[in-house]
Amino acid sequence: MRSSKMQITENGITGFSDFAGGIEVLLEAARRTSARSVNAVMTATYWEIGRRIVEFEQGGEKRARYGKKLLKNLSAKLTKRFGKGFS
User: Fold this and answer.
1) CB-based contact 15:7 (threshold 8 Å)
2) Which terminus of the chain, N or C, has less C-beta within 10 A?
3) What backbone torsions phi and psi does residue 2 show, to the nearest 5 degrees?
4) Model pLDDT for residues 29-58, shown as the tens digit of each residue
5) Could you give the CA distance from residue 43 to residue 28 in angstroms, rounded to a whole number?
6) 38, 45 contact by CB (below 8 A)
7) Among candidates 65, 87, 64, 60, which has minimal Cα distance to 76?
8) Is residue 70 a contact partner of residue 83, using CB atoms and an 8 Å limit?
9) How far is CA 16 from CA 10, 27, 81, in A?
10) Distance of CA 13 to CAs 3, 8, 18, 23, 60, Å?
């Protein structure tokens, strides 16, 4: 961390703009990193959900006897619990 002196003058605080700008850069970087982390976790979660649906539907068989009932029921349950986005 570099040392820069801030001084109070009649026109405000000298060096404050650089100081505040550095804090803003830190916060923006943290938000971007957080968003990437959340996106990675959600992608892995949705992939696992898909894997479990296929595994459940196939029940050990090579191919599923796909019916829309499982997905319809799962959609209704998840929408009720978590809100929109599971249709």
Assistant:
1) yes
2) N
3) -85, 150
4) 999 999 999 999 999 999 999 899 888 887
5) 23
6) no
7) 87
8) no
9) 14, 17, 47
10) 15, 4, 11, 16, 70
